[in-house]
């Protein structure tokens, strides 16, 4: 198994988090109840992915599995405990990449944990708790009969990614010679790759590792580098209503507890490393969560 993740860049995360929080004001909730009100009321609607093994997956029996599912569950239960409330009932809602900001803004979900990278344009529409994980953009290719080993090999190739995702945008910016096909979900990209309709799929290494593990022998993950550094840094956050600083603070307190009591390591072991077999660094330095 390739080592596909790198040390959490805590300093850049601290800087990023600070940037995300600049300008935060009151706790507005134009539509729907915010996360804290929903937890107190005992019913919370959370968004995640439904088709990403090891991260957010709706199983055949309707149950939810994956690291994002476990982290979101931990966070809402931890917030409930801190306030003396019962653990709420969770209703899961599928939140595809391109719909995340809208679903938060419309109040259809109270919070999203869905391989959701924090970036400045999204932070204009929503606020983020975290980050809770760092990964990088890579490629998934068929194991047999191809010669794609890095960015330079993508020129003129058909590459699949998902509408509204950061990897799709970064490929468009960096590699104008690539024929990018954008689908709604990564699982439909995986089928296109399997059928030979596209040459590669690009997104976060965490996600790609889950698909490679799901179809042993069919696919392999190619790490992407530029000038010896990872091609991108994807810092996963928990998206909530814009400027709801009270909720962001409560999420960050819960995330800190999750690292300190060993739950994060357990979730990574059970879902990624010991689950789908994807390696993921576990940060020792928690200063990036200090506000
Ligand atoms: N983390 C990236 C993003 O938020 C890619 C994964 C996804 O689309 O969920 O856009």
UniProtKB/TrEMBL annotation:
InterPro entries: Bact_solute-bind_prot3 (IPR051455), Solute-binding_3/MltF_N (IPR001638). Keywords: Signal, Transport. Residues 1-30 form the signal peptide. Residues 43-275 form the Solute-binding protein family 3/N-terminal domain. PROSITE patterns: PROKAR_LIPOPROTEIN. It holds the Pfam family SBP_bac_3. SMART domains: PBPb. Belongs to the bacterial solute-binding protein 3 family. This is Glutamate-binding protein. It comes from Corynebacterium hadale.
């Amino acid at each position: 198994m390739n080592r596909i993740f790198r040390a959490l860049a805590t300093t850049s995360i601290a800087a990023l988090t600070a940037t995300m929080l600049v300008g935060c004001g009151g706790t507005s909730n134009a539509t729907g109840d915010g996360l804290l009100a929903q937890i107190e009321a005992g019913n919370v609607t959370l968004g995640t992915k439904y088709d990403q093994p090891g991260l957010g997956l709706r199983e055949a029996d309707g149950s939810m599995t994956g690291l994002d599912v476990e982290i979101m569950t931990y966070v809402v239960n931890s917030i409930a405990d801190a306030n003396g409330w019962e653990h709420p009932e969770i209703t899961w809602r599928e939140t595809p990449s391109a719909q995340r900001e809208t679903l938060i803004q419309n109040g259809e979900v109270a919070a999203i944990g869905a391989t959701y990278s924090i970036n400045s344009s999204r932070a204009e529409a929503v606020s983020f708790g975290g980050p809770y994980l760092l990964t990088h953009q890579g490629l998934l290719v068929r194991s047999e009969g191809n010669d794609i080993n890095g960015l330079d090999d993508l020129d003129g190739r058909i590459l699949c990614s998902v509408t509204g995702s950061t990897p799709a945008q970064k490929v468009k910016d960096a590699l104008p010679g690539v024929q990018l096909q954008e689908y709604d979900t990564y699982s439909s990209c995986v089928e296109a790759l399997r059928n030979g309709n596209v040459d590669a799929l690009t997104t976060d290494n965490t996600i790609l590792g889950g698909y490679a593990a799901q179809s042993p022998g069919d696919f392999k993950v190619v790490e992407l580098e530029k000038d010896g550094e990872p091609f991108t840094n994807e810092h996963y956050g928990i998206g909530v209503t814009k400027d709801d600083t009270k909720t962001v603070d409560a999420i960050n307190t819960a995330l800190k507890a999750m690292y300190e009591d060993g739950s994060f390591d357990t979730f990574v072991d059970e879902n990624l490393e010991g689950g789908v077999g994807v390696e993921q660094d576990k940060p020792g330095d928690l200063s990036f969560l200090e506000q």
